[in-house]
Amino acid sequence: MKKLFLCTCNKTLDKKLDFLRIEKELKDVFGSVQIHDALCLKEGLAFLESEVSNEDRVVIGACTSQIIGMPMSETMKTESVSFVPLREHVAWVHSDDLKGASNKAVVLLRDAAIRVDHLDPLTVVENHMEKAVLIVGGGICGLKVAADLLRLGIDVTILEPCPWDDASYVEAGRFMADKETLTKIVKELVSATASATTICCTITGLEGRSGKYGVSLACLDGKISTIECGSIVFATNVEQKPPPLAKKLLYGKSDRTILLGDLADLVEKQEPKDVKTVLVAVDPTHHISAVEGGYLLRVVTEAAEKGNTVIVAHSNIRTDDENIYRAARKSGVIFVRGTLEKIEDTKEGMVCRLENTLESQIREFVVDLLVLQTMTRPRGDTAVLAEIAGLSLDEDGFITTRYSKNKPVQTSKKGIYIAGNGKMPMSLGDAIASAGNAALEVFKDIRASTRRKGWIPIIDEEQCDVCEACIEACPNDALRLVDGKVTHITQHCEFCGICVSACPTRAIEFQSHSKESWFARLEALAENHKKMEGETPFIFVYACSECANASIDLAGFTGKGYPTGTYVIQFPCAGMVSPIEILKGLAVGAERIVVAHCPPGGCHHQTGDHMAELVVKFTKDMLRSIGQDPERVKATYMIAALPNKMQEEVAHRG
Amino acid sequence: MDKRDQLIHKLRNIAVKTPENEVEVPEKVEGFGTIEYSAQTCSACKKCILACEPAAMDMDPTMNLPDYLTATIPHDGFRSKNRESLVTLLQELKQEGDVVAISVPDGLPGYGSIAWAADQCIACSKCIEACLEDCLTLEKTYKLPEIIGEVKPPPSITVSKDWEPFILCFVCWECSHAAADLAGLMHLHYPTNIRTIRIPCLGAIEPMHIMTALENGVDGVLLTGCLLSECHYGGDSPKAGNFMQYDFVKFWMDVLEEIGMGGRIHIDSASAAMGIRFADIVKEFTEKIKNLGPSPIRGKLEVR
Question: pLDDT below 70 — which residues of chain A?
Answer without folding.
Answer: 652-654
